[in-house]
Design brief:
- The complex is a heterodimer of chains A (97) and B (382).
- With 97 residues, chain A is mainly alpha-helical.
- In chain A, 41% of the residues lie in helices and 7% in strands.
- Chain A is built from 5 helices and 3 strands, in the order H-E-E-H-H-H-E-H.
- In chain A, strands 1-2 form a two-stranded antiparallel ribbon.
- In chain A, strand 1 and strand 2 form a beta hairpin.
- Chain A is elongated.
- Chain B is an alpha/beta fold.
- Classes of the chains: A mainly alpha (97), B alpha/beta (382).
- The interface between A and B is medium-sized, with 22 and 33 residues.
Amino acid sequence: MENKNDQDQVIVCRCEDITLGEIRELINKGYTTIDEIKRISRCCFGPCQGNSCMQLLMAELTRQTGKNIKDIKMPTFRPPTQNIKLGVLARGEENEK
Amino acid sequence: MKNSAEVVIVGGGISGCATAYYLAKLGCTDVVVLEKEYIASGATGRCGAGVRAQWGLELNCQLTKMSCEMFEELDEELDYDGDTEFKQGGYLMLATKEKEVEQFKKNVELQNKLGIKSELLTPTEALRIVPFLNTDSVLACSFHQKDGHLNPFYVTDAYMKAAKRLGVEFYTHTAVKDIKVDKGKIEGVVTEKGEIVTNKVLNAAGGWAKEIGKLAGIELPLTPERREILVTEPVGALLAPMIISTSLNFYCQQVPHGSFIMGRGNPYEKEGLNQASSWEFLTNMSKTITQVLPVLSRIRVVRQFAGMYILSPDAAPIYGNVPTVEGLYLAVGFSGHGFMVGPMTGLLMAQHILGKETEISIDSLDLGRFDRGELIREPSVV
């Protein structure tokens, strides 16, 4: 059986190496929106652009705050949709080689 | 929620949080900070995260130099449980026009007189600091080692936490709906969650300062305008200073975490509270930066965002009280450098609100200067 401590070791954000335990600690400290947690921990700030961590973060926020998932405010979508090299953008190319 | 307070601060950015802390430190702990979203959700958390003392106006030099000295001690002063990430890699400012070179010479002379150890560099000398800089169009540079970077989220968080420990109350996600003024005196603040009776209100609402002013019946000469930034993936340490140029229209730095962040202004930007990102910025920014720092061509953009410059008519902040509304104070119009003067804004406004002598005189930064025609133009805004 998995105990709570094991769960705390689970990596929520792979880009910034943030564990579930660290997210829980932030929620306990009063950072209870995705926007706040993002800015204070860099979760969702990495090259995955939140694609792998944001769902996990939302799920944990619903568990810890008792809010319905539809009431969790989504942060602003930040372009670009995919990581792209500055040089590719500057040259106006459609795809990275 | 408290129903009365000695001072109510509108705005949970650097200016509001720092003022709350210094008020409490000076003994005034009956303070409430109202923030319509979350701490640092406006211009503070969306800024370029740079701090420099290289300005062309004596007051801006003083405000930024003293703020920089306060930043150096900030983690200890506020007993912060994190690290505000102060990195003093300097600011390297590039001039590509003769007029700019002349301005740099004047600025450096002024800065040196005020104890800011900036220096003029030739493009070749600049290459010792940034070996991969394309100096083709650069005529001269100015450099100041003590300028640098801090994390705006952490700085604001640190001020908030320290103020809270001293007794200040913070209400986030609490928008101000009205400010009650009776016979030219502040009587209270109405929020979406209740009313607070008070005789002193500080308007530190950044992009929304004009709206807050209107609630108290005054028209502030402010122009909020969108500015955009992009962020790259984090890479190993490559660039020590912030590089910045008015004529090339850009600034760019590598933050301690490894990401590059960079921004530029759009001369066709319209006044307003728009904080959406545009594709034009992404294209123009990448063109500019890959010319100046070609090595960045192979680094990937992961995100772009936008925030606001809140421009005053002379690009200098507006500090002080409002003659027509007793009890209304202003810390507004920072014109893109509210974060870097944050500690001094906090200290000066706290001293001013409590009727104490201010660290340096803020008389010339009052609202009345626009009526008197005593504008104090800052020449070095990017």
